[in-house]
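Last lecture ended with a question: if I hand you only a sequence, what can you say about the shape of the protein? Today we answer it with a concrete record. The protein is ABC transmembrane type-1 domain-containing protein. Below, first the input exactly as provided, then the predicted structure, then a couple of comments.
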Amino acid sequence: MDLDFVQRIVGNLLNGVVVTIILVAASMVCGNAMAVPVALARVSRRWWLKAPAFLFILCIRGTPLIVQMFMIYYGLAQFPAVRHSVLWPILREPMWCAVISLSISTAAYSGEVLRGAIQAVPRGEVEAARSVGMRRGLMMRRIVLPIALRQSLPVFANETVLLLKASAIVFTITVRDLMGEANIIRAQTFRTYEPLITAAVMYLVLTWLIVRGFAWLEARLGTHRRAVSAAAPGRLAPAPATVPLDAR
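The predicted structure:
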């Protein structure tokens, strides 16, 4: 590796890092916000809510992300109604199309994760909420969703890492993210290893920051559990049953 060459290109790659961080952060926020209604529809008893959510998750998870991205960026532009609509200033921008496609993908995957977490909420918590007269909507907001989100944090950390790596394909629709900058440098200088290895190291650092950030958040949200356990150590394990004298 030519370290002098790496020093000359690191500024361009850092510009791509900023774009990548903005892209991943926006997609995570929008995608997870969309995942909540998708998950609630999946656990609903109403078929007209459950069926569309199931089909949405099936289609998004069953097709390649790059196909979805190309259909949004290249495909929608062929319709005159789209080009003359109020959405065209957004849909003609590659960055917005990348955010939309990554958000939709995140909504499908995170929605299914959240659906499993909702169904894994202890039944005792739900029954306790019902016993005090909580309605279903209030119970979802105050009991079920907070527990489900806390239980899903390790999976969401993994999903965020996967989203970071999936964002590397947005350079195919001309977004100058980290991979896009590395590809431009490679094409202009005909040097492959230096830009790609440097970009890989930067992706590795971003992945480490994501993992550590979620670990910190998980520790913060688990503080109250440790406090309750410390205040009531006898609840950690039930007392052993007394053995009758005649059974010894």
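Comments.
1. DSSP finds eleven helices and no strands in the chain.
2. The chain has a mean pLDDT of 89.
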